[in-house]
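## Example pair
The file below holds two records. Each record gives the amino-acid sequence first, followed by its structure token line.
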Amino acid sequence: MTTKNYTAFVSHSWDYDKQLKNLKSLIEKNSTITIDYSEVTVDNRINSEQRDYIRGVLKKRIISSDVFLVMAGMYTSYSDWMKWEIETAKKNNIPVIAVKPRGAERIPVIIQENADVIVGWNSNSIVINIISAIENSSV
């Protein structure tokens, strides 16, 4: 079986950086795909405080991604950056996959209204939906 390589932007909260790392580890457990990640992290920041500049950099990364993953924690409701990232992905026809953090019972409205699919904290489910979303968006 051939391993497919994709680019993903993961919208997340820096306050929950461990969830991002855990998500990446979960995806890496599945050997059918590899992912190059393009999001901005606590360890890989944009060296600017200019909002328009930051948005420009983020937009380039989002629209050059094959898929947009978003951590579907309730904190998303309170993050203007995450809301903007989701809206940017949707406006540019990037497939949006929401991943429910382990144990999460509620999903923010912004995610319910914009996610193409919402998946649980399961490696196979996440990977299958990444492949499906990308293949369906390129048709």
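Second record, same layout:
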Amino acid sequence: MDDAIRGQSDDDQDPREEFLVEYQEEPLLEIQYIQLEVGIPQDISNKNLCKHTQDSQTFLVTPTKGMAYIHGKAIKMTVCIDNAQHPLIIDSGAHCSRVSRNYLDNHFPNWENQLFPTKAKSFKSASEKMTSIGTIIKEIIIPHRKGNIRLNPELVVLDDVHIQGFFMGTDYQRMYGIDIYNNKNRHITIGTKKKKFSLYIYQISAQDPLGELLNELREGQFSTTLASKQKLSLLKILRKNRPAFAIGEKPLGKIRGHDIELYLDVERPYPPMLRRPPYPESLETRKEIEEYINEPLDMDVIRKIGHNEIVEITTPFLITWHDGKSRLCRDFKALNNYTKADRYPIPRISHASDKLAKAKYITKMDCMKGFNQNGVKPNSMKLLRILCHMGIYEYTRMPFGIKNAPAHFQGIMDTIFPEEILEGWMVVYIDDIIIYSDTWEDHVQYIDRALSKFTPINLKISLKKCSFGQQELLALGHKVSGLSLAIDQNKVSAVLQNSVPKNIKEMQPFVGFASYYRNHINIFAHITSSLYKLCSKDVVF
């Protein structure tokens, strides 16, 4: 995203729509006299005599008693350092520019190779003593309309503090001629004797939605071939549709009006297979289960059953291990066998992927834990109860692994995007949304239209799984570009590493995987005919 914060031409729109800071060129003001008037610069000198005894009438904002402190704000802006965005605080109360060792460790690998020794081993603040381990020079780029302002301050690295971001003290404020103006349009100026650049401050904090979005955008994937103007137009659309993204303490949405309802083809009393006990658990497995339970519990995906609630159906779950990593598996096999099927059609991947092969721009978006954003009807929650050593829990959101989840979610998406799919620029496969076009102007418009549909129904998109404006990407198990449709070699290599199937149970998933790529294999039916015969019950493997 480093290109997205660079300058733009004079013909562009108001830069406040695009940037965190605004530039304007103005003549240097010469300060000669004391004038107690609002907005007029004041000369500060010990030689001046007090000429007035009445109360000051220069307030721009009259504070409420006991609330004056809310009008004070840090001078904080977002700058570019080493092709990444970082906070810069203009600190008029500190004589040296500084950064903490902790912040460098978290954001700048191998920063210690750039460290210079310093004679001063400690610095004093108003209330404590801070230890220095040296100094470091970092190139700081402040974005503005007519070209970036490039600063190269030497910062003291503090060892025993945990400050976030870079702090510019009065040392480099004097060297660069940085002046702070606390008038109505609060800003700073950076300049020489002939001219100054005014930078209007826009507050960015951890609670600021725009700040969160800009920080979260670093998790998304953006095409490296996009021009600066293309990135800016995309950023504007993403900022406009911020509510569509999973950002904040409660990132998981809940789709309105589409709760799933399950129907069983068996009446009470339910068969024993629907009342299964928990699997045996080792101490290591119990620790993993506790971690897996706490996350959906905090996200309101499950709730714990009270001691006075009647429990008729229970599903156990287990932890599987592979290469030292654990995975939660819900054993809904018995419940699925007794659930009436939802026959809603799911698109064929081959048809969907063929449409993408000729597109110049492709964007892929993914719903954050898509199934878990779908509610469950109250009378169906009692069917979705899992148990372990911690007790019995009930799904209040649609879980992964139940029989009708994919068909139900596909139906929701088709209801949300009927025109977009018919117009031929969107492919929806369950919780994957793919947008494609031949021109960038159409592409940005399509992304805007798609994102605007998510907010009304409270469906959230995961930026970490989004890929914007690509000319080539992995989608629906294929490597798609404007020139070709190829097989994802990562999936092929994973199969090649497995051993040769030794029985029907191992052969069936292999044949299913091969069939997924049948369009890429000549005379596929002839080659696999013998394999299909081996999957028959009448043939000895």
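Notes on the second record: The chain is about 25% helix and 20% strand. Residues 270 and 312 are 7 Å apart (CA to CA).
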